[in-house]
Amino acid sequence: MVVKAEDAFKSARAEHNRLDLTVGTETIPMLLSYKDVREAARDWKTYSSDAPFRVPIPSEEKERSVRQLPIETDPPQHKKYRSLIEPFFRRPMQAAYIERIDALIGRMLERCAERPLFDVVRDFALPIQSYALSYLLGVLESEADTWIAWGTHVFRDGDDSRNKGTVLEDYLRRAIQDAESLSSDDNFFAALNRMKVDGRPLSEDEMLGIGNLVFAGGRDTVINAIAYVMNYFAKWPNELMKAASDPRSINLAVEEFIRTLSPLTHIGRVCPSGHGTDNRVSLCWAAANFDPAIFEAPELVDLTRSPNPHVGFGSGHHACLGAPQARAILRSLIAALSAGSLELRIEEEVLNIEHYGAVQRTVGFDRLIAVLGD
Question: For 151-159, what is the mean pLDDT?
Answer without folding.
Answer: 82
